[in-house]
Write a structure and sequence with these properties.
The chain is of the alpha/beta class and about 375 residues long. It is about 30% helix and about 25% strand. The protein has ten helices and 20 strands. It is globular.
Amino acid sequence: MNLETPALIIEEGQVRRNIAKMAGIAAACGVALRPHAKTHKLPEIARLQIGAGSKGITTAKLAEAEIMAEQGIDDIFIAYPIVTEAKLERLATLSRRINVIAGVDSLEGATAMNETALRRGVPLQVRLEVDLGFGRTGVPYDHALELAAAIAKLEGLQFRGIYTFRGFFMNGAPTLELEAAGLEEGRLMVELAERMRAAGLEVRDVSVGSTPTAEYAARVPGVTEVRPGTYVYYDRMQAVLGSCTLDECAAAVRVTVVSRPEPGRLVVDGGSKTFATDVGPGAPPLHLIGYGHILEEPDAVLERVSEEHGMVRVPEASPLRVGDVLHIIPNHICSTVNLHSRVYLQDGGQMRELPVAARGAIT
């Protein structure tokens, strides 16, 4: 295939190995695996995950779930509060077609959802999101029992349990102590579930675990499900965290050197429209250098990006020249995928193009 750059290349064999690895971890721990599809946004990859043993998938937005359902994925958890009338109507319609669970984190949101469920005659399944210190959505841990009890009384809703997203955070800050963070995440959620059950609530789901913590949180007795996402491709951030090796990273952006204006600097044809910049250089605890790892020149640094240009610092003796092709593992693959309308799956000498079906599905 005569491939123009920049282009996002996915090594299909490595994807399959990554899928099998996480499926094995979940099976060994006796927990369900419900991977987050926000990383790949591809129904084909979701089907590979389900074929390897995943219970279903997780999405961030309702639109992602709708796209996946259109392609035959029939068990989806939407890990995001759905509160507007139009979206609640869409949720009710989707719930007639497939098994779908939605996230809630407020009584106002749950009440609106309950009104839609009763009006449409469609019971809606919900999980309560709990904030363990990440500071995003989620009810504060100490208020979760009270809110769960109120939600469980709403006649149109079926309260399924609790979930959290904590990432590699512990004690309110990023950490490289992934095992400790994962075990604490699982323990806190199981203890909360036990208090809810003691108060008379039925808690079937205790869902935890991102890519860096899933294998550890899954070990905690009482955890029922883990929801890693990035593991399917991995990225430079996960490699620095220790979740994987660079060799396990299945995705790289192929770029071309378009300029070498001086010996220590060259320019590639991928900038902020090509590489995600949400995980940038320098921030603790990762202290990443640049916006990606350049496979052909590990000592080079993608140190600055504008929309269409990537400025790379190279050793002055580097043999790279205009027209050379490079492959760069991005810092954060999830946001990078969302910048590309298509990806190229490579398997040995074969390459095929796939549209990123759920790209930009933000509603």
